[in-house]
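It is worth pausing here to work through a concrete case rather than discussing structure prediction in the abstract. The textbook approach is simple: state the sequence, then state the predicted structure, then interpret. We follow exactly that order.
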Amino acid sequence: MFKNESAKGFKSSRERVTVLCCANMKGEKRDLLVIGKSKNPPCFKGVRSLPVDYYSNANAWMTSVILIDWLATWDLELKRKIVLLADNCTAHTNNSLLKNIKVILPANTTSLIQPCDQGIIRAFKAHYRREMPPRIIAEPHDIQDQSDASAVAKKIFFLMHCIW
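Step two, the predicted structure:
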């Protein structure tokens, strides 16, 4: 359901995650950073490794602490110097302790110079919305024994975010 749609006869889901997409001009993508509410979501039980970087906080929002930790990890992996363009969100900070990453926070230019604002995020969301129903249907029968589709969706919701 989209934000502006009304949910008649039931409550809309309050499940939320924040996903950070990061790519360079050559098209090389960084693993997604996913932020959820639960430190250890039940759907991660039995999962040995995730194809994303996962963090948690009470609101599933980006915080400066999460961003600094993610950048510091990436900075240690880099073998060259890079410039990272980020919007001027309060969680985005310019950490001078980074050796290989220089963070630039230009004001009021987000949609002009940031590729993620030029369609990457919209394409990511469209892909997710297109893939969610077939994945719910394809789930094993032990999950489908539940009474309604929303219960099934909640069971697999979060792990699906991490697959992309």
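Step three, interpretation. DSSP finds five helices and five strands in the chain. The CA atoms of residues 19 and 25 lie 20 Å apart.
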